């Protein structure tokens, strides 16, 4: 296989532990394969400053980054990526802001990436582009003459055709996917939405075995559910920081059962719905009340996007009212932490918790669900309460699956999880561990790259946009 070139909006030093699903997974991948990681530096600069690529060596990986101007950042990142694609792909048309200027900025930054990346490529490189920020990147690269094999992986859900069709320029966006050789989704449901979209909107036909033909091009599409590095996570769980965290939690909560939630503070994660379900549980089970505490870590995210400020206030108000109404002098039902917790401590927190509440309204996969399972003590494991609307629910059938919009149903699942007998907890955990071990991050990466190499070489041409 040629050199691997990974492209994503944000990049991280793969030798350091990063927070965030995509950065963690890609760092794992590149650490084992080596190669180049190209993306935005995270810096916003004056439009007049030089826009040269900056290189940095990080172990076996070359990091190559470009800066963005304020105008480009606002339209590309805040505007189109997080003001249009993120909400619509998470089924929140009501939160989308279809400002016409955003798409121009989105295209401009994808063109900038293509222009800066192309001269760095070698003929036998394999390119792997990640996520919704960069959907048109292959089309822009092809327009400049790029012939290398290019794969694309969407980390977030793909909504059903009629929802996608609400995006002005949706056909342009989906057509751009056909400039890739392989397009990967998190779940079978997402793949099915893609298939239905191209059939109904682009009158495409399935060619054979996951290949689709439309716009005069052929693309291979498949479901490649992302996993975690179970072994690495086990090691993290045995390291001193995690052990210390575990012991502190066990001591502090020796007479109580812990429930845990770890999420970026994002409206897709269903945090207010989760709090309402917990409040319902407290209301319905007065005798169990002070025997459980919910620790909710909501790490700050995209704070300069309006919808995120609203969700922050809603969550703070709910936590405050639950604690105000149910708290005792020596017990608070909710511990809400609006900060990022060090990654090294997370396994200790997961392990000390009897229940994890992973209840997004919509999620591409959700890695927290898998991390929680990997951190458990097999002899006395905790219970995963998982939203049926997380991509992970397609795989993790032995979790307690809930509908997060159903407050009473979720409250009932919380009770069931807290009271689940040891034998049942062990059986469920064993089955779930088998799944996350088999479908780990290496399986995901190898599976995608092998499928990409096997795609039939097709003359992609340059007349793309
Ligand atoms: C996107 C998709 C898909 C969270 N809070 C803290 C922290 N985290 C870490 C978790 C986990 C990661 O961030 C979150 O990953 P998720 O998968 O749960 O969610 P997204 O960030 O939305 O990721 C998602 C993923 O991409 C991968 O494809 O699964 O569906 O939305 O690793 O542990 N880490 C630290 N402190 C925190 O406070 N250190």
TrEMBL record:
Q: What is its EC number?
A: 2.4.1.15
**A single GO molecular function, which one?**
alpha,alpha-trehalose-phosphate synthase (UDP-forming) activity
CDD domains reported in the protein's UniProt record: GT20_TPS
Superkingdom, taxonomy of origin: Bacteria
GO-annotated biological processes: trehalose biosynthetic process
Return the broad EC class.
transferase
- Gene3D superfamilies given for it? Glycogen Phosphorylase B
**Keyword Protein biosynthesis belongs to the record:** no
Q: Which reaction does it catalyse?
A: D-glucose 6-phosphate + UDP-alpha-D-glucose = alpha,alpha-trehalose 6-phosphate + UDP + H(+)
Is Cell cycle tagged as a keyword?
no
The record's listing under InterPro entries reads: Glyco_trans_20, Trehalose_OtsA
**Keywords carried by this UniProt record:** Glycosyltransferase, Transferase
Pathway annotation: Glycan biosynthesis; trehalose biosynthesis
The protein's job, in short, is: Probably involved in the osmoprotection via the biosynthesis of trehalose. Catalyzes the transfer of glucose from UDP-alpha-D-glucose (UDP-Glc) to D-glucose 6-phosphate (Glc-6-P) to form trehalose-6-phosphate. Acts with retention of the anomeric configuration of the UDP-sugar donor.
Q: How does it assemble?
A: Homotetramer.
The UniProt entry's sequence similarity note says:
Belongs to the glycosyltransferase 20 family.
Name the record gives this protein: Trehalose-6-phosphate synthase
Q: Which organism is it from?
A: Ramlibacter monticola
The record lists the lineage as:
Bacteria, Pseudomonadati, Pseudomonadota, Betaproteobacteria, Burkholderiales
